[in-house]
Amino acid sequence: MLLKGVIDCPDIPLNVSRSALQNDGFVKKISDYISKKVADKLSGMYKTERETYEKCWDDICPFIKFGCLKDTKFRDKMKDFIIYKNLEGKYITLPEYLEKAAAPKASEETAETNEPSDTPITDAEEKKEASKKIVYYVTDERQQSQYINMFKESGMDALIMTHNIDQPFITQLEQDNDTCKFMRIDADVTEAFKEETDADELKGETDALTALFRRVLANDKLDVKVDKLKNAGVASVITLSEENRRMQDMMKMYGMGIGMDEFKPEVTLVLNANNNLVQFVFENPNDANTDMICEQLYDLAMLAHAPLAPDAMTKFMERSNKIMGLVIGAKE
Hints:
It is built from 15 helices and 8 strands. A hairpin with a 4-residue loop joins strand 1 (about 85) and strand 2. The chain has helices spanning about 20, 25-50, 50-70, 70-80, 95-100, 105-115, 125-130, 145-155, 165-175, 205-215, 240-255, 255-260, 275-285, 290-305, 310-330, and strands at about 85, 90-95, 135-140, 160, 180-185, 225, 235-240, 270. The chain is elongated and about 85 Å long. The strands form 2 sheets. The protein has a 5-stranded mixed β-sheet with strand order 2-1-4-3-5, with helices on one face. The protein starts with 17 loop residues before the first helix and ends with a helix. With about 325 residues, the protein is of the alpha/beta class. The longest helix is centred in the N-terminal third of the chain and has 24 residues, at about 25-50. It has 3 domains: about 30-80, no CATH class; about 85-95 and about 130-185, Rossmann fold (3-Layer(aba) Sandwich), CATH 3.40.50.11260; about 190-330, Heat shock protein 90, C-terminal domain (Four Helix Bundle (Hemerythrin (Met), subunit A)).
């Protein structure tokens, strides 16, 4: 798919069917040799012509990733030379990303390993899963801009993976490297964004706001979490678990339209207890404007996660105009 040309080989018969030719041993050897030469050329460019390699990477990376999915030997040769663009627009390898992400936590991890643990290991799989390093990635820079800004403010990084082939490629990377797992940038609100709180500190607010938002939005199954985010300007965000989102993407990929209607993954609405609007609706649940603010907070969070449905967008615009009218009225 990447190369075009002619190879002169007197050992390949011409008077055969295409299927016979594809199964010919000489053809297989030629294919393996070409794959090896391509991998050698690319690895050589990475080592000696890094700038040129990076300039052409965006154009060739889908073919390279496809080759890695189809050919194990090619993947083994190329795994250390596959680069990714990060939030700063720089190209880095996966090991470089993991090293950078683990650096701030090195001292904490050392302290944890030095402490004796009295808790017996009851589930080895859960412990192994929890110990995996998380690789965050972005699939739509514009749609996920709010999450990107939160990452930058916290000094965290993520990989830009916007091509269609990146989803199966991510699965392949996880299978080959069982020490890390990939999570889209909006899959959860990481601990780096939160202030330290006691387990029961926000229980009262969580229970009250969950009941309030479920009533206003007429959704008894809405999952609501309340956290104290360091950025008080962020009122609400929507998160969708990585597993549910991958299932949703897979169903879209295979055109399972009927299944998509039946499978509606539940999202989590995360409210920031440090935000003035969230504090207002918590302290004034019966105010005349509380219901409107709750609807607006939910729609704003959804807009940063995915486009609104036409009806929801119409209501959002009408509500926004009403809110601006209230602001003008208050000034007058």
